[in-house]
Amino acid sequence: MTLKEGQRVRLASDTRLIDAVAEADGAPAPAGAPTAFLSLAAGTEGTVERVVEHQDQSEGVREYVRLKSLLDAFGGDMPPESRRRLEAQVGSLEPEWIDYQQQGPLVTVRVRFDNGFVLDDVHEGLFAGQ
Asked: What is the C-alpha separation between 90 and 65, in angstroms, rounded?
């Protein structure tokens, strides 16, 4: 599901935000011993303020796109051996290309909850649309 700016969403599961490291009286907690946690409860509602699609392509994916474009544009005019070699290179990179397409782009969002909290740069999968 791709979220859109202005869309109302609901947090799909309890989400821990931070570990508290202070005692109730304000004194620091012992090293490495958090005393409490801050979480947002599943079902907390808010509005999507920003959606960012990250197009992080590996070097193999970029090379597949480059070689496939070359093959499609000039393959018919290439000497047979050069064409076979290029087809082999494209074929060796195809599994990485298929994986990339199946994963789709990474989408992160900024959501302002009705209670005033804001989660920014978090994966859209944390939310369910309304």
From this structure: 9
Summarised one tens digit per residue, pLDDT across range 57-78 is 889 999 999 999 999 999 999 9
CA distance linking residue 130 with residue 128, whole number of Å: 7
Total residues found in the chain within this entry: 130
Task: Identify the three-state secondary structure at position 44.
Answer: coil
What confidence score (pLDDT) does residue 129 get? 83
Where in the chain does DSSP place strands (E)? 8-11, 15-20, 36-40, 45-54, 106-113, 118-123, 127-129
Q: How many CA atoms lie within 13 A of 4 on its CB side?
A: 3
End-to-end CA distance of the chain: 12
Task: Please report, as a single letter, which amino acid is at residue 14.
Answer: D
